[in-house]
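Hi support team,

I submitted a single chain yesterday and got back a structure, but I'm not sure I'm reading the token output correctly. Could someone confirm the output below corresponds to the sequence I sent? I've pasted both exactly as they appear in my results page.

Thanks,
R.
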Amino acid sequence: MQLRIRPFFLLFAFSNLIIGLLSGLGRLGWSVPLPEMYVHHGAIMVGGFLGSLIALEKVIPLKKYGFFAGPLISASSIVVFLFGEFQFAVMMLIAASLVLLIVYAAYLKTQYNLYLLLAMLGSMCWFIGNVLLLWKRFYPMAFPWWVGFLLFTIVSERLELAKFLPVTRRNKNILVAFLGLFVLGIILPFHEAGTNIAGLSLVCISLWLMRHDVVRVTIKKEGLVRFTGVALLCGYVALLLEGIFLIVLTEAPPGYDIVVHTFFLGFVFAMIFAHGPIILPGILGLRVKPYHPLFYVPLGLLYISLAMRIAADVMMFPATFRSLSGWVTTGSILLYFIMMITSTARAIRNATPD
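Hi R., thanks for writing in. Yes, this is the structure output for that exact sequence:
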């Protein structure tokens, strides 16, 4: 039964991705369907897509149907946004983040460890960001906390894999200190010292990951393992740049646009590209690891689009150049998932005996 409903949840989450990408193009000036969704681009991508995907991945191993309410609620919020019910839609995201908190609490009851605790703190950041959005109705208020949600979630995943490497307790404590510094940065007024503190912490976290993560090993391998390592390293470099941008850029719209998309495109989507061939088949209950050498094409296009966007913001290029970067971004993400689907189908075919 559980296997039957997984594709439904995944399809629902990816419908949020499609509409989120369209709303992003709309914000860049392109005429696309559903213009009323443009303003909610951030909530759709973070809550409707990423939040649903993360929650679905965590709920499946527990085999408790009640917990599927979390990803269902977050993915369904897009329908409520579509009808213009902002307040109710954000309340749905708050409820979904609370369910994810409960899911992590269930994990911690049976296996208390650092990486699960960090993931739970990430879900708390998502909850706080959603509450602030409901309270202030101002997306930049939620942004630092949403960054915390994804940062803690991703770092916890990488820390779990680092248990196979000789990472000392002292080095893990250093990472926790860097993460604590980030939390301090987003608690303080973000337009004052908070931005610099958060930026410094991201620089330190990125350098820690480059030094202690399995990326040092995987990048020397071949095939899917090497692709994963390359995508991870690209993401860590983007996280390093994100920290620098937070420190040196002003809060003017170009600076805000750069820090938002350097994190979400450069870091978060690099992590999705890196983990996708493992996580997505796992969600569907498939024992295959799809890969094709052409996976590097959408990864490269993703960073070309980010470079175009940053250049347009810094150099004040014509709006059409910045708008064009949105199509390159959308194309890179869609191309990646199309290639994932075709590679998965081929891997299943190859694994099936004649």
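A quick pointer for reading it: The mean pLDDT is 92. Let us know if anything else looks off.

Best,
Support desk
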